[in-house]
Amino acid sequence: MSNLSEFENIADAGQETAPIWINDLTVAYHRKPVLWDVNLVLPEGKLVAVIGPNGAGKSTLIKAILGLVPKATGDIRIYGRSYEAQRRLVGYVPQRESVDWDFPVSATDVVAMGLYGKIGWLKPVSRRHREQAVEELRKVGMEAYADRQISQLSGGQQQRVFLARALAQDAQVYFMDEPFAGVDVATEKAIVALLKELKTAGKTCVVVHHDLQTVTTYFDHVVLLNMRVVAAGPVEEVFTEENLKKTYGGKLTLLSQALHKYAQQPGIGTGGAKGGHR
Amino acid sequence: MEWTFIDSWIIVTGILSAMSCALLGNYLVLRRMSMMGDAISHAVLPGLAIAFLVSGSRDSLPMLVGAVGVGVLTAVLIQAIGKLSGLDQGASMGVIFTTLFALGLILIRQAADHVDLDPGCVLYGAIELTPLDVYTLFGWEIPRAAVTNGIMLLVNVLFVVFFFKELRITSFDPALATTMGFNAGVMHYVLMALVAATTIAAFESVGSILVIAMLIVPAATAHLLTDRLVAMLAISLVVAALSAVLGHLGAITIPTWIGFRDTSTAGMMAVAVGVLFLAVFLFAPRHGIIGRMVAQGLLTLRVNRDDILGMLYRVQELSGQRSPAVKTDDLRKALLTGGWVNLALADLLRTRMVRRTLEGVVLTESGLSSAANLIRSHRLWESYLCGQMGFCDAEAHYSAHQLEHVTDEAMQERLKRAANYPTLDPHRKAIP
Ligand SMILES: Nc1ncnc2c1ncn2[C@@H]1O[C@H](COP(=O)(O)OP(=O)(O)OP(=O)(O)O)[C@@H](O)[C@H]1O
Ligand SMILES: [Mg+2]
After folding, report:
1. Which of A92, A122, A149 sits opposite B176 (nearest CB)?
2. Whether A125 contacts chain B with CB within 8 A
């Protein structure tokens, strides 16, 4: 596989300029591939929804882009360079369940973490940084809760804190894993307003989303994912009944069965996950 | 019994080792890997034994190198087994550390034949003997154990101070930390290496088994008392130091009360820290069991007081007389809260809200105004719930009944405004 990819430069367009350029990405946990041959070029300054059923690999796609899970094959570029070289351009909002909310930190402390990259190793968080963190909290309507320990916030408030932290990262490209999960209408509106603001500022936001009803109103671009990319493009072009059926329907079970068999062949593993870093 | 310089040095050594363990222990507790401390403190045993065998002495440096090596190896193995086998972390820890510990025991028996080394001392510590083994530093005789633990504490303090922000983010959100370039994996292994080194430095004083108490319990205690990280670190250090002092005092005094000679200081330190934890668990203001019960009790008392006042007011309203007396038995029957009524009544009498007469209890002037205030809240809520939100049934009464206890004047004003300054509630009763 990895040898082939060097000849197969299908998605060359945008390799140097696109905020996200992915060629022939395969990711496997243990030996079971969960993302298969993903080719993706995402445009700048757009709100991009990533949709697909549970277990489709949406979170895995984001983690692979951010270098949090090793890739079996493939090449990923952020504005033409590897992720490691472009860290400072990237902001990340993980799934809310991924952290321990009983941790002894206040909302301000969490938001200030968004500034750590800028502050750098060994330097302390100064008062100016904390003020900036409170400022970011204000943008999401949470300044009244700045000093609260984070377990004493509601789910929607916690999500806002996460968003404020992403704002503090001051990135060009944002990856958000289900920011709308379990929030009420008011928070959902606040998040949408924030996304629009980011878009106006020319930022690209890649958002894992579950509510198919709102895809057309909230987003410009959509990626339909189920182990592989079923379709990707402007919402009005690819968000069609047929593509949705392909993504959520039964046909893919065949593919996953085939992949499962493939994984059980001897000599195929997740080893050699070195491709792509330059 | 006499206090000697030996006792002082035992306490100093105990404090230093307890504090250096407790400081790192905070991060084990916060990362929810308390058992990792257990695993590492046991698993370093073969590292020690190998160091003894190779160097042929009890020098600190080879021991430290051996321990840190095996400590990191343990962390790596646990991670690897977990990943490859799909076992959960607890299970892979169990597999690794018991195996290494057993290996260590065998090796130590071997080593004991060659080196002057007592396996029991490794397991349980021998803090009582540490003051006898001294360094001479600037003309002062300082026990070696105090020096080692002092250096370890210093290293740990520097680590936590300089990497405060890095430790915080890699502990709280390792994924984000890694995307930002603060490699959570590297931080994990550095922490584990330091835990291993700290364990080794401390094992002479508290032993490799009790060291786990010093790693985890002070931090767990501190976590119950605060939700600020810096405060948690500070409190855990205080708890650790306190347990060393109490532990030694306990060891030399308590057994004599019941006619024995003194007992093991290390064991008493573990008991002391356990007792401190228990005390905090019971009495901590917010998270403690007793604290929560007291808060709950005070709330129940207040609700009962309010209910008695409300009832007296309503009786007065219905009867049309000024301050009619109500029998305490009637109050009890109406409120159905048993002994709480007596307590609440006693409190009302004490604060002169009600007065006892021959026929029963009556409202005083101040009682009347408090009662009117409560009824105002209740009826304003009913008006608001019915008029503005459309809840007019019995449920609205119950809601109002609960809300009235937490409604202050500002809230009353807002309710009035929202309900268009009503004068009668939905049941056509006057709002006082
Ligand atoms: N750490 C892991 N180890 C092994 N398998 C994993 C791991 N994480 C995810 N998987 C598997 O990878 C597949 C994709 O998971 P992923 O979390 O990316 O799905 P998702 O699209 O984000 O789903 P959801 O909508 O439920 O969040 C799933 O089949 C899951 O079981
Ligand atoms: Mg997911």
Report:
1. A92
2. yes
